Amino acid sequence: MSQLLQQIINGVSLGSIYALIALGYTMVYGVLRFINFAHGDVFMVGAFVGYYAAPRIAPLVGGNLFLVGPIVLLLSMIVCSTLGVTLEKLAYKPLRFRPKITILITAIGISLFLEFGGQLVFGPDPKSFPTLIPSTTLIDTPNLILTSTPVIVIATAVVLMLLLRFIVMRTKIGTAMRALSFNQQAASLMGININTVISFTFIVGSSLAAAGGILYGSLYPSINPLMGVFPGLKAFISAVLGGIGNIPGAALGGLIIGLLETFVTGYLSPTFRDAISFGILILILLFRPSGLLGRYEAEKV
Amino acid sequence: MSLLELQDCTMKFGGLTAVSGLSVSIGKSDLIGMIGPNGAGKTTAFNMITGVYCPTSGQVTFNGSNLTGKKPYDIVATGIARTFQNIRLFTSLTVFENVQVSFNKSLNHGLSHSVLQLKKFREEEDSVRRTIVDLLKIFKLDGVKDELATSLPYGDQRRVEIVRALATKPKLLLLDEPAAGMNPTEKVELMKLIKEVKERFDIAILLIEHDMKVVMGICERIFVLDYGIKIAEGTPSEIQCNPKVIEAYLGEQVET
Amino acid sequence: MMNASGKKWAFIAAIVLSFVLAQFQGEINPYFLQIIIYVGINTILASSLNLINGFTGQFSLGHAGFMSLGAYTASMITITFQATPGATSSYVMFPVALLVGGIVAAVAGVLVGIPSLRLKGDYLAITTLGLGEIIRVIIQNLDFVGGARGLVGIPKLSDFFWVFSVVAIVIFMISNMIHSTYGKGFLAVRDDEVAAQAMGINTTKYKVIAFVIGAFFAGVAGGLYAHFVSYITPSQFGFIKSIEIVVMVIVGGMGNTVGVILAAIVLTILPEALRGVAEYRMVLYSLMLVVIMISRPQGLFGTGFKRFFKKQAA
């Protein structure tokens, strides 16, 4: 009990990062009905952009942490959006009407390419992520040590998610995204340019993943080219838990998985951390495949 | 005794009632048609009979036994076969192989035999092969038996689907819009074919169809569905004069 | 291809030949022998996965999990009963151990097959991936089989005869199955489950059977592997291993028996030939995967099922 608050803070900060990544999964699934396995590796690229960019940006703004952080974040988001859209145009678009299995394997291939390519380009050894968040201790009690880092992580994630909600609910292109996720044919008949909307979806999703990468690096400063594998899977599980295709669901799912993992690691044993998340996935898929907030889609005969 | 009986069957999908209180009776050698505007619930009724959907309420009885809620492959075992509105042939299989799939349910040997390929297996395989070729000959499809099923012209694909369904040795054959996409000549051939199938294989046939010439031309009795409810039942001439039927089709042409 | 009795003679000939060749095993350069043995084991793995993925259309990403179950089970048996290479008792004990390993894997295949009944495509892939990882985590936590440190001292019982006899059995069995009426049921499940059910196919049964047989042979392959390398760890049977097997099936052409065998051969030899550029191996693999799926999804070898992969209506 004494550690409870600490675990909650940890869980929420981890969960908010999972949520950011999960949003990308869920949005792409919403418009394309396909799970972008490579999404977790976009997250990894985001972290590495931060790693390489920070030392170069810092001298330009006189080392002012309040400027470096947001600039690096923006830069990372831009790079990853470009990456995401490029992948979509080169690899996923040609396969849009082929059987699902084809695009699934392609996504796996791209994921592996990014991972092992990353090992070649960045080197396989872990690197130390630069400090982008000014770290001050806010609360210092025996029961709870709260630094500014998790607070800012959570705050950033929340701001981004609110921004996303605004885009999805209030802008034309966000509405187009929602229309596309309901019925692709009808949407195109209404004059919506499907390719533009899909590209936009990838831009938004990849940006959030990039942000996730930067925040994750700030929270757990050791990064390596394979760092996207498990967070990517956990984020996917979060998206499914919340209801794949459902945006608030992804956020909710991320939070739950983040908290669950933190508690399991803290109170049970670290080795079971991954197994528990996979276990949840299997349970969800077996008993409530539409997730907590999702809707069930039946096959028309 | 009737072969197939639907008693007060209702199918609800959440708030939507697709079919309501449907009662239908089909005898052993009937040729029955089911018509109605789009969305009237005809394919849903088919799906209830074949086990794709489980009726929300009501009962489906076939040959005296209760089919309600059974799985599709069990229902096929009792003697009901069907074709599909959008042709669903097996895309990677030849015409021969498509029909061959249907023989699985009546195989007397299983996994171990097909692996070890003992004498009994080979005999049965030969017999199956002969039966398939004979069946295809009746429908004049034996020439294309080793062609990919989906490479055939549309009308031929429909015929393959019918042969495939017949290969399950059914007592009742459900045809879902068999004339869809056919030109007038093909439709005339189809009408002949359906009548021939009924005679030769001694089965009952229930068909959904939009083309009135086909329905009125071959069906002995017709049910009319509208918004999930049976609004009329009778012989072709009775149906043609039924005011409720005409009203349901108001705005559409009754004859093509 | 061959007719039924031709196949039977080829099968028997293959077994006899592998026995004869096994006697000369010692003459071959150990490095080449290792490659040949690996080719055999990968052929078994790829062919067994081909049954699940290629013929039945169930996308399974956890095949290495089955392999590990077979590897560990068979090893525990031979270690416990102290089988030694060359001893006559080993000639009985080894196949028994392999068999039990295969059966344990097959039981797992049932457990994995069951979720597959309700899941399609992406979801099934992730679930099988998850289950494969769960198996690995469980083994990692079992101290009596060595846990994360691995299992040592496995008797080196695998030789040319055992490996290639199993290869012959797998090919014979699966090839016979697929060409029979019974086997068409699997293909029907792959092409269109709804239509398959309407033609009387119990799709549940076929899917589970595919998983069981596929898992069984993966388990046997695992046992053969363990008794060749003498030391196994759970991390050897992770996601990457599963992907390697999947790549073989994809490159060979899903559902293409001969293609998959050729792919297994090429993809076992190639990394050895490219020893110098080992770090590029996975990068090339993944690129190859992507390129093949975009340009030639039916695989490199043979025409496979090109039509299955053609553009479908939106």
Question: Any overview of this molecule?
Answer:
The complex is a heterotrimer of chains A (301), B (256) and C (314). Chain A contains 11 helices and 4 strands; from the N terminus they run ααααβββααααβααα. Chain A is mostly helical and 301 residues long. Chain A has a single domain (4-287), classed as ABC transporter involved in vitamin B12 uptake, BtuC. In chain A, the strands form 2 sheets. In chain A, strands 1-4 form a two-stranded antiparallel ribbon. Chain B is globular, with a radius of gyration of 19 Å. Chain B is α/β, with parallel strands linked by helices and 256 residues long. Chain B is built from 10 helices and 10 strands. Chain B starts with a strand and ends in an 8-residue tail after the last helix. The radius of gyration of chain C is 19 Å and the shape is globular. Chain C has one domain (4-309): ABC transporter involved in vitamin B12 uptake, BtuC, CATH 1.10.3470. The chains are: A mainly alpha (301), B alpha/beta (256), C mainly alpha (314). Chains in contact: A-B, A-C, B-C.
Descriptive tags:
heterotrimer; A: 301 residues; mainly alpha; 4 strands; 4% strand; C: mainly alpha; ABC transporter involved in vitamin B12 uptake, BtuC; globular; disordered C terminus
Summarize model confidence as the mean pLDDT of chain B: 87
Q: So what's the overall shape of chain B?
A: globular
Global Rg of chain B: 19 Å
Provide the succession of SSEs of chain B: EEEHEEHEHHHHEHEHEEHH
Number of domains of chain C: 1
